[in-house]
């Protein structure tokens, strides 16, 4: 089993965060834009490409905020992705301009949504553990960078 790097964007504006809206058999779920790093790409290069594919936005990549491991066998969808081991790097990002249509959205992706921070706890957002960390960012609390293998 190999370990995959994934980069994710945390874009916040006016007390809202931009998430991809996705649909599966259980209904809608939300993810932070981003995805896998290709061989030879830096993290910022991968994040620029992934955000264009999933959001249509050109971005400025800021500071690394969080690192999360995802070890599939330890999570609720273990039967589906038990062999997955992914290290996710979450960066503060800003949109540059108004953007276009996504160029290559993920297979479950049905749209984008700016979600009020206060509504995140009421939605199926992955990873769930990141919700409180993001709310803490807005409140300028000191946050841990490494989150571990959290849901």
Could you walk me through the main structural features you see in this protein, from its secondary elements to its overall organization?
This protein is of the alpha/beta class. It has one domain: Nucleoside Triphosphate Pyrophosphohydrolase (Alpha-Beta Complex). 17% of the residues lie in helices and 44% in strands. It contains 3 helices and 9 strands, in the order E-E-E-E-H-E-H-E-E-E-H-E. The chain has helices at residues 43-55, 78-81, 130-138, and strands at 4-13, 16-24, 27-31, 34-36, 58-71, 85-96, 109-116, 125-126, 146-149. Strands 1, 2, 3, 4, 5, 6, 7, 8 and 9 form a 9-stranded mixed β-sheet that branches. The longest helix has 13 residues, at 43-55. The radius of gyration is 15 Å and the shape is globular. The model has no long low-confidence stretch (mean pLDDT 90).
